[in-house]
Amino acid sequence: MKNDLLLRTLRKEKTERTPVWFMRQAGRYLPDYRVLREKYSFFERVRNPQLAAEITVMPVKQVGIDAAILFSDILVIAQALGMDVEMQEGKGPILPAPIRSQEQISKLDPARTEEVLAYAIPTTRAVKEALENEVPLIGFCGSPWTLLCYMVEGKGSKDFAKAKQFCYEHPELASLLLDKITEASITYLNMQIKAGVDTLQIFDSWGGLLSPSDYKRFSLPYLDKMVKAIQPQVPVILFAKGCWYALAELQSTGAAALGLDWTIHPSFARQVAGASVFQGNLDPIVLLGPRHHVEKETVAMMKAFGKGNYIANLGHGVLPQTPFENAKAFVDTVKNFRA
Ligand code: 1CP
User: Fold this and answer.
1) Strand spans (E) along 73-136
2) Would you state the pLDDT for residue 125?
3) Which atom of ligand 1 is nearest to the CA of 25?
4) How many angstroms separate the alpha carbon of residue 24 from the centre of ligand 1?
């Protein structure tokens, strides 16, 4: 591979410079992606190997990023289990029949994952081919807890109150549901590995909605099971947004790297989970601001993380309204930085 900075960093090897990529880098803020969005529905873009490959490669070619992330969505696991998912422009995902009962959970079938998500093999292979061994390919899925949030709530939410209420009222059903999501997710990650991804990121985007003790009940055990199944095959990056209180436990899963959101000071992370490789953590909204501020904050971030065991990224996904020049300024500042 021509540029394996990310993979060497995940193995804790020395590198010439810090690798950089963006969470949610495929699509969104790129003008060429918006053109494709007019022509094809979301899941057409995900399932068609040529389209998925074109979208995945865009940020590598246009912004000079050190890794590609497969164009797909965390909600394909809800589909694998038998749920309908609609992507409504401007509104995000809608699940018209959210899970609220034991009967609904008993109908969810993780054994069908390989069949429902069969397209992932040819699409991932097409993406690998389009990358021509320039940079590594990151596969991904959501955490079981984050999937439960959407499957029970039925849509995005700022607090996922219905999903949390469900867990507090029916903890035994929640654990049944989380087990099924975990099983489907492990199958799906193994499919991505089989098709050639070089590393995998697990997004626990809504982990931080839980208290530290509820995190240990409803998220950590399932993440732990997933990391134990996958990390022996390819390095796993765990991104648990808002979970500063669980960094030590997240490190104990054995994941190769921990993603950090922008509320965590690098020195705090080193103090509680010192031996980890860290990834993050610029506030994505900084990229909306003036360019000199983007450059200044990026340099401050690079200095604070220090040399080695570090992957530069944002503290959450890049926002759709991010000016292309600011995204580029972030990447260039990381690449030009010398400790
Ligand atoms: O953006 C990329 O790099 C391409 C791959 C990708 C990834 C990694 C998409 C495409 N979605 C995701 C992950 C994802 N999806 C997460 C975890 C990361 C995060 O926290 O941002 C989550 C929570 C989702 C759920 C989801 N899908 C949302 C958020 C809804 C909410 O609760 O606010 C949305 C808007 C989607 C639709 C979606 N998925 C991906 C795109 C490009 C879109 C938008 C539709 C479009 O622009 O065409």
Assistant:
1) 86-88, 92-94
2) 98
3) 3
4) 7
- Among candidate residues 92, 75, 48, 18, the one with its CA nearest the CA of residue 311: 18
Sequence-separated (6 or more) residues with CB below 8 Å from residue 88? 94
Confidence at residue 107, expressed as pLDDT on a 0 to 100 scale: 98
Does position 131 have pLDDT exceeding 80, yes or no? yes
Domain 5-336 sits in CATH at 3.20.20.210
What is the C-alpha separation between 178 and 199, in angstroms, rounded? 23
| 206 CB within 6 A, ligand 1 | no
Residue from 17, 37, 100, 112 carrying the catalytic annotation: 37
The helix (run of H) or strand (run of E) holding residue 298 is helix 291-305
At 120 the three-state DSSP class reads helix
Cβ-in-10-Å burial (0-12, 13-18, 19+) of 23 comes to buried
pTM of the model: 0.97
Q: Is 25 in the pocket of ligand 1 (CB under 6 A)?
A: yes
At 233, list the tokens.
């095959």
Domain limits, the chain: 5-336
**What are the CA-CA distances from residue 162 to residues 155, 175, 222 (Å)?**
10, 16, 21
Q: Which residues pair with 257 in a beta bridge?
A: 237, 277
Residue 117 CA to ligand 1 centre (angstroms): 17
How many angstroms separate the alpha carbon of residue 73 from the centre of ligand 1? 6
What are residue 286's phi and psi, to 5 degrees? -55, -35
Which residue puts its alpha carbon closest to atom 24 of ligand 1?
74
Summarised one tens digit per residue, pLDDT across range 239-251 is 999 999 999 999 9
d(CA 309, CA 154): 38
Residues 6 or more apart whose CB falls under 8 angstroms from that of 162 comprise 98, 152, 153, 154
